[in-house]
Specification:
Blueprint lengths: L3 E2 L1 H30 L8 H26 L1 E2 L14 E6 L4 E8 L10 E3 L3 H6 L7 E5 L5 E10 L13
Parallel strand pairs: 1-2, 4-5
Antiparallel strand pairs: 3-4, 3-7, 6-7
Length: 167
């Protein structure tokens, strides 16, 4: 399955790769060399940590490169009266009798604690393309679903300040 990402997502990943390869990797290699110079590697905790950090850095770079290679670049535009990517949506959750406000983002920038909901999550999938006043069924799995009513849509745009997820 290919991830649907925006041009900004791709740009942010490329910037992180460049930082990790040009700035962070040389520092981590220096730390590894410094730790190696302390002697016996079998009992050298600093060496093990430095090696682990360098490996983690390369793992992240490889992950980001795979994401870029397999990504499908999408446009964030939607109709003025429909829920789209980066829109802020106020919904009324019928079962709980509460209003929630979500911003729909790409999977790479979701953060449920900040109400940044992936467009591929159950809520995001259910809301995309709908209008104010629509009653939408959110299907979590085969046995769990609930209804929400869209109360308000505030059109948004791709916010470059939103960080990409670390993993």
């Amino acid at each position: 399955m290919n991830d649907e990402l925006t041009k900004v997502d791709i740009q942010k990943m490329q910037e992180e790769i460049e930082y990790r390869m040009c700035t962070l990797a040389p520092k981590l290699k220096e730390e590894l060399a410094r730790a190696r110079a302390h002697g016996d590697l079998s009992e050298n905790y600093e060496y093990k940590i430095a090696k682990s950090e360098l490996n983690r850095n390369y793992s992240r770079v490889n992950y980001l490169k795979r994401m870029i290679d397999s990504a499908v670049v999408i446009d964030a535009e939607s109709a003025d009266d429909e829920v789209g990517l980066f829109d802020r949506v106020t919904v009324f959750i019928e079962d709980e009798k509460v209003e929630e406000v979500y911003t729909l983002v790409t999977t790479l920038r979701c953060d449920a604690l900040r109400s940044l909901i992936s467009k591929e999550s159950p809520v995001g999938r259910a809301l995309m393309g709908h209008k104010v006043g629509d009653r939408v069924k959110v299907t979590v799995n085969d046995t769990v679903s609930y209804f929400v009513e869209i109360r308000k849509i505030e059109k948004g745009e791709d916010d470059t300040s939103l960080e990409i997820a670390t993993y």
